[in-house]
Amino acid sequence: MTVDQPAPSGRDLDALRSALAGARAEPPLGRAGLAAWEARHGIVLPEPYRTFVADIANGLTAGATEHAGADRPSTEYGLLPLGRLPDGWRTWNSVNWLCPVPFDGSAPRDPAAPFPLTEEWQWEYDYDPDEDLARMTVLHRHGSVVLGTESPGSFWVLVTAGPRRGTVWLLADGGAFPRPDPDEAPAGPPGFAGWLAGWSACRGRWEAR
Asked: How far apart are CA 41 and CA 87, in angstroms?
């Protein structure tokens, strides 16, 4: 395992810490805990997520959101601790998913195996079970850590291996989409830092509505 990115600067770290305003932060994992997780999975996590979970917070719980109701914090829609999966990941819901065959949400995940996509894929409009089921299975198991839930059946992941390492994707009910959209001007820094800033700006939602 090699570290392919420099650690974030003090200014970058201050920007990450600013996203904690109004959120309940879980204690950081620490460098020893991070090293143990990376050794177990055979992967070095991309920066600045790597430093964030080790030194700042290993997960965030949003303030009140429309998902959770006005009087209690959201746990399902927060930033998950490293390696944890949301409850909805393991539950098949045919109302939300637009392919006829579910992926196995209980199967082991391999963050060191290459993430299979380099551009968006919309299976909502063109799904062939003979060709696409294996690709969907790999998409949900390989090359990423799950960051959180956007809505039932839609999940945010950070790519940890492959050509799109360090980017954030939305695995939605009808397709997989990089964020920000390559055809749109980014509103902030790329990757995890920009995604986290968007979470803060949207008051606990991962995308503005």
From this structure: 22
- C-alpha distance from residue 156 to each of 36, 71, 129, 178 (Å): 24, 25, 24, 10
Tell me 87's DSSP state: G
pTM: 0.85
How confident is the model over 137-190, as pLDDT tens digits? Answer: 889 899 999 998 887 778 899 999 999 999 999 998 788 999 876 666 555 567
Peptide bond into 86 cis (omega under 30): no
Residue where the block lists tokens 């990450």 = 16
Element (H, E) at 166: none
From the number of C-beta atoms within 10 Å of its C-beta (0-12, 13-18, 19+), residue 73 rates as middle
- CA–CA dist 185, 142 (Å, integer): 28
Structure tokens at 92: 């098949």
83: tokens are: 């390696």
